[in-house]
């Protein structure tokens, strides 16, 4: 609460605009930590009461989908999105930004980002763990340690990372990992996650017949995931769109971009907008 006003004032000053020049106020209404969401939603309501601007509540995951539209070139619709973060791992068909969205697959247990962070914690690498594992993996051999084949034999588009976390915990518990051992472990763990994500993502592309794949969410900043996605896209004739790393992690620009189509359609949320800790994307934008 102490930071909201100074951040807003600084942002407007750096952009060289005033509140009078803003057309609308987009705010993350969920899902997420309820305390943060309440602060943001109520502050946004105060802004629209004071300025008379329309209020647009945005789904957090839709913001990640919109991040690709901050880049040049932006993807054409429709596209398949691989949305990977600390709390979510999903495959989504996007026919239009603003929905409705079509569910293709999701994690049955843990998210890929959570698997990175929890494993990094066991290794004593700190938080956020994904970036530390990514950095260490660059000097490692991916074939040194044996990790399970994820969802072996399953032909669906769902994910599961709980077994990988268990296998990683067993290896870590067997002895301290340092130096080259640590690098090799990180390389093998990361490669297992990345290959599983891309296996399902490109299967979704083939299944839908849509030759465009967008990576979104915090894990989309992972260097190996980005490089392997581009490499495989070139090999299989699929256009791969990657938001810049700064736009992969949570940011206000993606929320504004997600709210823009609704603003252009004349939609608004109204002052009865509530913050929601749990809010399925497909409930927020139901199919007709």
- Residue-averaged pLDDT, rounded? 94
Determine the CATH topology of the largest domain.
Answer: Nucleotidyltransferase, domain 5
Count of helical segments? 11
CATH class of the largest domain: Alpha Beta
Computed structural class: alpha/beta
Strand order of the largest sheet: 5-4-3-6-7
Strand content: 5-15%
Shape: globular
Overall strand count: 7
Please, how many domains?
2
Major pleated sheet: 5 strands, mixed
**Distance linking N and C termini:** 38 Å
Low-confidence stretches: none
Can you name the CATH architecture of the largest domain? 2-Layer Sandwich
Superfamily (CATH H level) name of the largest domain: ATPase, nucleotide binding domain
Summarize the structure.
With 288 residues, this protein is of the alpha/beta class. The protein has helices at 4-15, 34-51, 60-66, 112-123, 129-137, 162-173, 179-208, 223-236, 245-248, 252-264, 281-284, and strands at 25-30, 55-59, 79-84, 89-94, 101-106, 212-216, 239-241.
List keywords for this structure.
alpha/beta; Nucleotidyltransferase, domain 5; 47% helix; globular
């Amino acid at each position: 609460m102490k930071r909201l006003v100074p951040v807003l004032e600084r942002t407007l000053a750096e952009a060289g605009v005033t509140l009078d020049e803003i057309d609308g106020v987009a705010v993350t209404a969920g899902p997420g930590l309820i305390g943060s969401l309440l602060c943001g939603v109520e502050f946004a309501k105060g802004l629209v009461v004071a300025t008379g601007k329309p209020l647009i509540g945005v789904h957090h995951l839709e913001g990640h989908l919109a991040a690709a539209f901050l880049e040049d070139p932006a993807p054409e619709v429709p596209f398949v999105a691989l949305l990977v973060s600390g709390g979510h791992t999903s495959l989504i068909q996007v026919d239009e930004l603003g929905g409705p969205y079509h569910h293709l697959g999701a994690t049955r247990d843990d998210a890929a980002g959570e698997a990175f962070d929890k494993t990094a914690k066991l290794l004593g690498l700190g938080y956020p763990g994904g970036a530390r594992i990514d950095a260490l993996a660059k000097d490692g051999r991916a074939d040194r340690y044996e990790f399970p084949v994820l969802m072996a034999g399953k032909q669906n588009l769902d994910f599961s990372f709980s077994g990988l976390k268990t296998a990683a915990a067993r290896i870590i518990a067997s002895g301290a990992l340092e130096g080259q051992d640590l690098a090799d472990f990180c390389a093998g763990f990361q490669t297992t996650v990345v290959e599983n994500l891309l296996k399902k993502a490109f299967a979704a592309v083939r299944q839908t017949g849509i030759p465009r794949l967008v990576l979104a969410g915090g894990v989309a900043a992972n260097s190996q995931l980005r490089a392997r996605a581009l490499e495989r896209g070139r090999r299989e004739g699929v256009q791969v769109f990657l938001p810049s790393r700064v736009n992969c992690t949570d940011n206000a620009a993606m929320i504004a971009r997600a709210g823009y189509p609704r603003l252009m359609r004349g939609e608004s949320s109204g002052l009865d907008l509530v913050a929601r800790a749990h809010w399925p994307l497909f409930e927020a934008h139901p199919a007709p």
